[in-house]
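Task: complex structure prediction.
Instruction: return C-alpha cells for all chains below.
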Amino acid sequence: MILIVGGEGSGKRTFAKSLGYREEDMADGCLDDRPVIFHTERMVFQAPERAGLLYEDLLKKEVVICNEVGSGVIPMEQRERQGREAVGRLCVQLAARADAVVRMVCGIPSVIKGKLS
Amino acid sequence: MSMILLTGGSGCGKSFYAESLCLKLPMPRYYIAAMRPYGEESRQKIEKHRRMRLGKGFETVERYTDLSSLKLPARGTALLECICNLTANEMFDETGNYSDPFDPVIRGVETVLHQCGHLIVVTNDVGNDGYLYDEGTNAYIAALGRINAALARMADAVYELVCGIPIPEKGALLI
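Output:
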C-alpha cells in the first residue's frame, strides 16, 4: 500500500495518476473494490470515534490518499478537534504499515518512507 | 548540551516520537507538562499521555507558566510539551487580555535547557491557517510563529513529524 498525504489541492490524485491509476480506479471517500481511495479524511470526519474500524480495509488498498488536516489553530468545535486528531492517528498507523509514504507539497512529491517501485 | 525541536499537526505522532528520543538520552527523565487541565477533554488528553509515558521512567513536572523559575533536581533529559500551551498560558490572562509571550517562553526554555543538559521541545504548527480569527488569536498565531523560529535557531536539530515519520528540517536524525 502506498499512502499519499498532503494539503487540499497539493496534487495527490495527479501524482497517483502518474503511477498509472485512472480516474475510474479511484473511490471518493467510500470503501469499494477500486484500488485507490481518496478523501479518506472525510470518512474519518463522519465518525471520528470509529476511525480505527477503517484501518484494516484501507490496508487492502493499493493507494490511500488522505488530506493533512492537523495544522493550523486548534478548532473551537470539539467535533472538528476529534476529526483532526483521528485523521492524524489513522495516518500514523497506516504509514507504519505502508510500503511507501509520499507527501505532496505544491505538487511536488517527497517519498518520506520506502521506495516507489 | 543538546536540544531538539519537534513540530507537526494534531495527531502526527510528535509525543510518541519525543518520548522515544528521550529514551536514548541520559537519565533522569523529566516530563514538563504545560497543558492546564481545563475541562473533560483536556483531562482525557492528559490521561492518555500519562498512560503512554508509563514505564518509560519519566518524572512529571506540571508547570503552566514561568519556566525561568523552575528548579529541576538534577541534570538529565527533559521533555517539554508543548510550546503552544505554554505560549497561550504566558500570553492570555483569565479575562482574555494578552501580552507578548516571546521573552517569558524563550527565557523559560533556555533555563530548562541549561539545567537539564538535554531537552526535547514539542511545538505545533498553527501558522498554516487562515486569518479570519479575532485579534487575540491572530496575535497568538504570529507570536507562536516567532517563538518557533527562535527555538529552531537555539536547537541542534528540528524535525517535522508527518504520519509519525520524522522529517529533518535542521540537523541529522538521532533515531
